[in-house]
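Chain A, query sequence.
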Amino acid sequence: MAVTLVRVTILYAVVTVLLRLMGKRQIGELQPTELVVTILISEVASVPMQNNDIPLLHSLAAVIALVTFEMIGAVLSMKSSRLRTLLDGRPVVVIENGTVRAQALRSLRMTQEDLLAALRQKDVFSTADVACALFETNGQLSVQLKPEKQPATAADVAAGGRAEPAS
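Chain A, predicted structure.
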């Protein structure tokens, strides 16, 4: 029992440090390759926790290799836009000038109801209010409202409510 607790403690510490080195945030912000590495790390690290006959060093080596591959891939994708597009994909425009792009939703395998739910999470309740909306490569929805639907800024208030025309 004590051996298992020591092994779990070591694996927990190593995996936590390595994931911090990867610089990861929330699960929802992970790129596909980062998510795969995270899942693989959990699988590789769990085996020696369950079976004390498996050398701990084998699991540690595999976890370190996975993190190293991810960090090398991240550096290479920063230097190469083609590799970044291959590994991470591209953002997809789903609403343009208030019009939902049905083909874009199909390519994302999303329904219009899924899109409307994502918009409501951004406090947008009508597609007609949207100038542009796109799904980022990490799965997050970015929304730009039409100018007349955007909240007033400090500059608008200082101008006495007179909105300056956009240049």
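The longest helix spans residues 56-79. The chain has a mean pLDDT of 84.
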